[in-house]
Amino acid sequence: EIHATGFNYQNEDEKVTLSFPSTLQTGTGTLKIDFVGELNDKMKGFYRSKYTTPSGEVRYAAVTQFEATDARRAFPCWDEPAIKATFDISLVVPKDRVALSNMNVIDRKPYPDDENVVEVKFARTPVMSTYLVAFVVGEYDFVETRSKDGVCVRVYTPVGKAEQGKFALEVAAKTLPFYKDYFNVPYPLPKIDLIAIADFAAGAMENWGLVTYRETALLIDPKNSCSSSRQWVALVVGHELAHQWFGNLVTMEWWTHLWLNEGFASWIEYLCVDHCFPEYDIWTQFVSADYTRAQELDALDNSHPIEVSVGHPAEVDEIFDAISYSKGASVIRMLHDYIGDKDFKKGMNMYLTKFQQKNAATEDLWESLENASGKPIAAVMNTWTKQMGFPLIYVEAEQLEDDRLLRLSQRKFCASGPYVGEDCPQWMVPITISTSEDPNHAKLKILMDKPEMNVVLKNVKPDQWVKLNLGTVGFYRTQYSSAMLESLLPGIRDLSLPPVDRLGLQNDLFSLARAGIISTVEVLKVMEAFVNEPNYTVWSDLSCNLGILSTLLSHTDFYEEIQEFVKDVFSPIGERLGWDPKPGEGHLDALLRGLVLGKLGKAGHKATLEEARRRFKDHVEGKQILSADLRSPVYLTVLKHGDGTTLDIMLKLHKQADMQEEKNRIERVLGATLSPELIQKVLTFALSEEVRPQDTVSVIGGVAGGSKHGRKAAWKFIKDNWEELYNRYQGGFLISRLI
């Protein structure tokens, strides 16, 4: 034994250097360190999470969140993803508490010095990274099942709420075998636990064998959960379980390649939900939730490439953003489409088998996929991951007897207007082209690898339309000549263009207008082609785009006019849907009804506002409880057109709510209130004990997005309370989300 003579802390670099009296021999050795730490309240490392028991007593659980660089807050370790090890974990805990870690319990014995305490010993883990280690000590109930391949699956819930874990349990039990078949690699641990944590900064964390979640990302109450919450839980469970293979079994070499983990899991979660719930039409929703969101950010001059070089640990948090997740997922979706499912699966299996229990970089995945498909994957993908941004494809057409000639050109798309600059970046763009003859299948697939290209489509009659980017899969925007656009409008009107193509078309038009490339008037004229639109996701995207326009116009004299326009666009579908679900309706009808009523209510549509007030009164008085799917739109409507009394009632409902989902639902709409003094009241409430620290951000965000005055007030409030906010969240990503 050689005793260390000194510890030199380099706090800036989060390192410690140990000195010994003589040179250590090369070879293997064991380093033993006694250490002490604190259960902090920063939601990172080994921290305490506050909860209230059914009898109303406040208690604390001890839980962990190590990704990216906080395992070092719990125990001394080489805390980098590529330095993998096995972990033997024992927890000494009060004997009436549940103690969990990555592996199964192998021994539980009394602790010598204290009869109220036991020592719980867990099986040795596989070779793994430090950021995936986890432990939880607290009071929980659970539901359990076995997946059809024999893995023990449990969902842990707050005491008395085991029922609320059933939906996630069902999803998890279906998901594990799905991934096992897809990757053709078995799940490597004997068990998996999914657990709801009261105070949790992220949505969830994929710790190997012990996945932690916010309560709202895991718990579903059949009576009080809305359809969008179910869908959210299904997606998050699918995302975290995908990481058990992609991330945990094979881990990125360094944080530069984080996007591989997150982009991949953010793509395959949709594949998995589509398998479990085909009625969700989830791939259309992907386009509005991830693809268009990524394009919005990535068109800015201050975007960044998918692959970012990361030096200091403090820089890691910055890359957990919509570029890593949503653009990452979008380019993987494009890649999957370009390769085809069969070769993609083959390549995935090669990759996971070759690198299991090891680390890999982006290039390693390209190599496996290239070997499986024989296509130039690396060359194509480097243009999407190593440079920021994406192209705008301009297309015009000319009829040549029975054929259609298309002229295509690409330029970088910029939110600030046409790209000006010397060397315009270029992409290798997989392009699909469809026609009205068969709107659901590509007539032609090409790889556009130069700035300009001419393409001839054989046998296209003059009256047929031609569309680029079938399924809105390619990560680019399209600008059609006015004649081509004109010919596509009937396809929107008679719905012969598939929903995801209708969505992509209007989203491109709105962005081109926002960038000043085409006129907003032209885009609003196209809106009337959407009168017969039945699809929830198309409406949802349209609604976002009109919302952005309406925010801009709130600074002009046309704000009232745009509200009238919104009412005109949404009232026909509102009348068709009505307030109450009809027999035979499904998940998407419920989402659409909530969206449309919320939009009409917010715009001050008279009949909607009156009905919302009536139903709200019945709800508050307990005469007729609002169905979960109608609560958000009703709360929003009555608050926006209400007064101080309405706000007080909402805050009372918030206090009484037993479910975190309901508390969050109320927190997100409080910002709709309009009077300056009520806005101040909501902002003060955001920092109060009533709101969990992780949710403060959505209250302030709701105020900032709620009205013109709210935006100014929220910004002033943040500046005035900066020290408290900064101290609360330190460098975590909640604070960057807030900004």
TrEMBL record:
The keyword Chloroplast does not apply. GO terms for biological process: peptide catabolic process; proteolysis. Its main location: cytoplasm. It is a single-pass type II membrane protein. It comes from the Eukaryota. Keywords: Aminopeptidase, Cytoplasm, Hydrolase, Metal-binding, Metalloprotease, Protease, Signal-anchor, Transmembrane, Zinc. One of its GO terms (molecular function) is metalloaminopeptidase activity. It is found in: Cytoplasm; Membrane. Its cofactor is Zn(2+). InterPro entries: Aminopeptidase_N-like_N, Aminopeptidase_N-like_N_sf, ERAP1-like_C_dom, M1_APN-typ, Peptidase_M1, Peptidase_M1_aminopeptidases, Peptidase_M1_dom, Peptidase_M4/M1_CTD_sf. SUPFAM superfamilies: Leukotriene A4 hydrolase N-terminal domain (SSF63737), Metalloproteases ('zincins'), catalytic domain (SSF55486). The keyword ATP-binding does not apply. Binds 1 zinc ion per subunit. Zn(2+) binds at residues 239, 243, 262. The record marks 325 as: Transition state stabilizer. GO terms for cellular component: cytoplasm; extracellular space; membrane. The active site is at 240 (proton acceptor). This is Aminopeptidase. It comes from Gulo gulo (Wolverine). The lineage of its organism: Eukaryota, Metazoa, Chordata, Craniata, Vertebrata.
